[in-house]
Amino acid sequence: MIKLAARAGIIGPALFGFVLTTLTILKFDFLLALGWHPINDPTFDWPSGLALGAYGWIMTLTFILSGLMMTIFASGLRLSLPRSQLTLIATFALSLAGLALAGLAFTTDPTIRSTPATWHGRLHDLSFVLLGITLMPSMILLGLAFRDSVKWRSLSGYTWGTALLAVPTFSLKGSALYIFLLAILIWCEVAAIRLRSMQELS
């Protein structure tokens, strides 16, 4: 299970980053038509708007796969850390964040529209909120849990640093969103690689 979790933790962020970048390039003109701008208004229907229009199903599938892989990765962290209530809560929060990420597969509503909000658009927005209120706390708690393990202790400060960087960039939006996404994806990769190396040594 830990080996599977490590692989999921490595593949999930890489897949998400690759698809996000590729679709943004392929759908650049479509995103501009939605009202998005890479510098002036980078959070306007991005990245959720990538699930609209041509190739949208690829982004939808990526949300699901990346979210499920994050949840599997959280299970591996739970098994590799010392058993405690803190570990359980931290990894449970990360699992919920993974499910919230998968929930973004509910297709968003374009911001500029003449029709009422749809049920799937509301569920998409709810999933985004849940992602924010579970991912950040999970990283803060994981930083604490890492301190209780000799094998994970060196990642404690890095985890807190990533959370401290991610919280304001998540809140401020704008171009800072790119920093938020990059910081989270890199942290996931680093933690998953650590999990894999620990499994190979055991």
List the topology elements.
Blueprint: H1 2-26, H2 28-34, H3 56-80, H4 85-103, H5 119-147, H6 156-172, H7 176-201
Could you walk me through the main structural features you see in this protein, from its secondary elements to its overall organization?
The chain has helices at residues 2-26, 28-34, 56-80, 85-103, 119-147, 156-172, 176-201. The chain contains 7 helices and no strands. It is mainly α and 202 residues long. It has one domain (2-201). Helix 4 (85-103) packs antiparallel against helix 5. It is elongated.
Features:
202 residues; elongated
Q: What kind of assembly state do the chains in view correspond to?
A: single chain
Overall tally of domains: 1
Q: List the total number of helices.
A: 7
Low-confidence spans: none
Overall pLDDT level: 91
Shape: elongated
**H-E string:** HHHHHHH
Proportion of β residues? under 5%
Class inferred from helices and paired strands: mainly alpha
Percent range for helical residues? over 70%
Total strand count, please? 0
Describe the structure in brief:
The protein has helices at 2-26, 28-34, 56-80, 85-103, 119-147, 156-172, 176-201. α4 runs antiparallel to α5 (119-147).
